[in-house]
Write a structure and sequence with these properties.
Helices cover 34% and strands 22% of the residues. The chain has 362 residues and is an alpha/beta fold.
Length: 362
């Protein structure tokens, strides 16, 4: 892997003083690499109580101050501008509320909250306090999703009738302690985890929807919530979305299958940005976000299929858009947020509908 950074222009405004709460997968692989490689930010504080993670954070980000808890970050709020919450879902609402009240702008990892009412309350609070509040729905910048979005916007498939989307993995053991103990009330389960991404993408592509069918199963030993889920959505636009999330899947189906009146698109594989960073790459590398051409999807009709190269993934766009918003005046700026929290609130409403339907079928 190349580690040569692309030169960046020096920021015209002081760096956005940033703290990241949590240094698990979210903080370690997504947030800190994107923040540390964007000159609009300074990575000032990282919180984790795990000694091994503290050592790893110190090695990767020697300029950041290490503290034990998010509360320790909030005690430093006067010296910060932004906090990023990469903590378990049940903590998102109370920590985001405390951070907004401490005068910080806030990025909340998905799921935005555990309940839609909590998400709406946070939106209202941010509006009253004049703070920036957004949600890290990074999968809006997956290369394969950007490819699908381009196909939908181009109308090359004609009238889209059906959208199928999957996040399926082979993970027979519940690996994280908090996930092993988490119930649905804690934001546990694959519907809150991977399902949040699939529903968000569906709503972005095809607009408002209602859950018409939901199957929620817990198959792994020790799973307290759900790890095998199917959800069907009926969009107001007429499109039907079928969404699968499975953590015990020995053979994975297509990542996407999109059917229209003039053709279809089928795509296997997973966006390469996360594994690239896990393997030691940087968002500044020339190869970052570029998928191997062998994973290109198929476009057209049976007998007339062409390979369609996947667009380059672009997770850094989230923090670029956010920096523009903050530096242009924050909540008062007319510039868009990278993710309007209203979208994730609608996702939470769909999750609530799915749980209600599944419970009624049980």
């Amino acid at each position: 892997m190349s580690t040569e950074a692309t030169p960046s222009a020096a920021p015209s405004k002081p760096a956005i003083r940033t703290a990241v709460a949590g240094y698990g997968l979210s903080g370690r692989v997504f947030h800190t690499p994107l923040i540390a490689t964007n000159p609009a930010y300074s990575l000032d504080v990282i919180s984790t109580s795990d000694a091994g993670r503290q050592a790893e954070a110190a090695g990767s980000h020697p300029g950041a101050r290490l503290v034990d808890t998010p509360a320790d970050i909030l005690a430093l709020a006067g010296d910060l501008d932004l906090i990023v919450l990469g903590t378990p879902p049940a903590t998102h609402y109370p920590l985001a509320k405390a951070a907004l009240e401490a005068g910080l702008d806030v990025v909340v990892d998905k799921p935005f909250a555990v309940r839609s009412a909590e998400g709406r309350e946070l939106m209202d609070l941010a509006a009253r306090l004049g703070r920036v509040l957004t949600v890290f729905q990074n999968r809006r910048w997956d290369g394969d999703y950007l490819t699908v979005k381009g196909l939908v916007e181009s109308s090359i498939l004609g009238k889209v009738t059906r959208f199928e989307s999957r996040f399926e993995r082979w993970a027979p053991e519940v690996s994280k302690a908090w996930k092993a103990d988490a119930t649905a009330d804690d934001g546990g389960g694959v519907l809150f985890d991977l399902g949040t991404h699939l529903m968000d993408q569906s709503l972005q592509l095809f607009g408002p929807a209602t859950v018409t069918h939901a199957e929620l199963q817990a198959r792994r030993q020790g799973e307290k919530t759900d790890d095998d889920v199917f959800v069907a959505l009926q969009h107001d636009s007429g499109v039907v979305s079928h969404l699968w999330m499975n953590m015990l899947c020995p053979q994975q189906g297509p990542r996407y299958r999109l059917l229209g009146s003039e053709g279809g698109y089928t795509k296997h594989g997973i966006d390469p940005q996360e594994p690239y960073i896990v393997a030691g790459g940087s968002p500044l590398d020339a190869e970052y976000g570029i998928e191997d051409k062998d994973w290109a999807g198929l476009l057209g009709r049976d007998g007339h299929l062409d390979r369609l190269p996947t667009e380059r993934g672009a997770y850094p766009e989230f923090y670029r858009i956010l920096a523009d918003k903050i530096n242009d005046g924050g909540a008062a700026s007319p510039l868009p947020l990278p993710v309007d929290p209203a979208g994730p609130v609608e996702v939470l409403k769909l999750i609530e509908q799915a749980r209600e339907l599944a419970s009624a079928r049980a």
